[in-house]
Amino acid sequence: MDNFYATDSSVTLAKSGSSSVCRLCAANLNTTVVDLGVSPLANAFISIKNKNKMEPFYPLHAMICDHCWLVQLEQFETPQQIFEDYLYYSSYSTSWLRHAESYIEDMVRCFNLNSSSLIVEIASNDGYLLQYAQKKCIKVLGIEPASTVAEVAISKGINTEVAFFDKETAMRLRNNGVKADLMVANNVLAHVPDLHNFLEGFRILLKDDGVITFEFPHLMKLLTEAQFDTIYHEHFSYFSLKTVIEALRIHNLRVFDVDQLSTHGGSLRVYVTHEKNKNHQQTGAIQNILNQEYSAGLYNIETYKSFSERVIKIKEDFVEFLINERRLNKKIIAYGAPAKGNTLLNFCGIGPEFISFTTDINPHKQGMLLPGSRIPVMSPEVIRHEKPDVVIILPWNLKDEIMSQLSYIRSWGGRFALSIPDLLII
């Protein structure tokens, strides 16, 4: 594999917050992937009492490093600011809970985990995953920066530390006798502006024969299926397998296997260990996915330059559909209040004049307003009363689960609509 990274000494120049320098390899950033204008923080919901107050908007401009192929955003807010009042609770998705339970079953079987083992999850949220390990009498430790969701995990009896994970946190834990047999990092890699500080923490805290699994949305899927709405300020970086392999290599960590997952519109789960650990041999799955990435044009800069044209077409089709439905006096609502939905709505300039309200099963979001669009969030129970003609599914990755839950809208002729990767009316 090509060694396209800068030397270790120059990597330290890739400081988070730089608009002109890659946060991974310190090369200059010159190529736009997509410019989505300006947008508020995607999870900065507005309370009713603050509805007349201003909210900050920031450029949402994804660029790619021509040297290491990391797609990234400029950093405008610190993680501390973004996660201070976080309203994403993993346990509200039944499909995600099934995914977590299945993961624990697989890891226990594959790596012979038992009551003497320790699983450490980074960004453990509300204990959605570690609860299944704890049921098997396996020792667990969650590390979660958002105190609001961490408190839920603690209330479940799950050992959780409220902290951002980095090499300093890892060293403190190791000095207190913590060494992990398995480290779990689901959908957190994209949330980290200082990748080197973060990845070094895994090297420090992992046992010599331990294993790490990272799950992250696959850049290949973002590009091939035009999943531009997964771009928001909370996601600082967007990864291919090749980029992840090389980033980990810098920290003497080795990817030995990879799974393709359907979660979040198409994700990868990479299996990682210390470079010096020879217990796990590299599988052929790695080269297979690298070949897929090459075939999809991930290492051809023209692929990224043409991506924005597809994004504009999605916007045109979606806005045209909403305009036509409103002219027919159709009642339009949405389901879900995910971060990706807020990217879509703000980029398309959609507000309550088109979508009367959205609904979400998460009670912490109900009674709030979506950032930017100011569309109110209500309980899904109101759908039966309002009888909308169209329900826009904003978390399209959960469309099957949502359409099953809301199948009753068919009784009055209701339809579902999705905008990504293409406009679909069901």
TrEMBL record:
Residue stretches making up the C-methyltransferase domain: 263-421
Pfam families per UniProt: Methyltransf_13, Methyltransf_14, Methyltransf_23
CDD domains: AdoMet_MTases
GO molecular function: methyltransferase activity
Record's keyword terms, sorted: Methyltransferase, Transferase
Stretches assigned to the Methyltransferase putative zinc binding domain: 22-83
Keyword Transferase appears in the UniProt entry: yes
Transport as UniProt keyword: no
Entry's Gene Ontology BP terms: methylation
SUPFAM superfamilies membership: S-adenosyl-L-methionine-dependent methyltransferases
UniProt protein name: Methyltransferase domain-containing protein
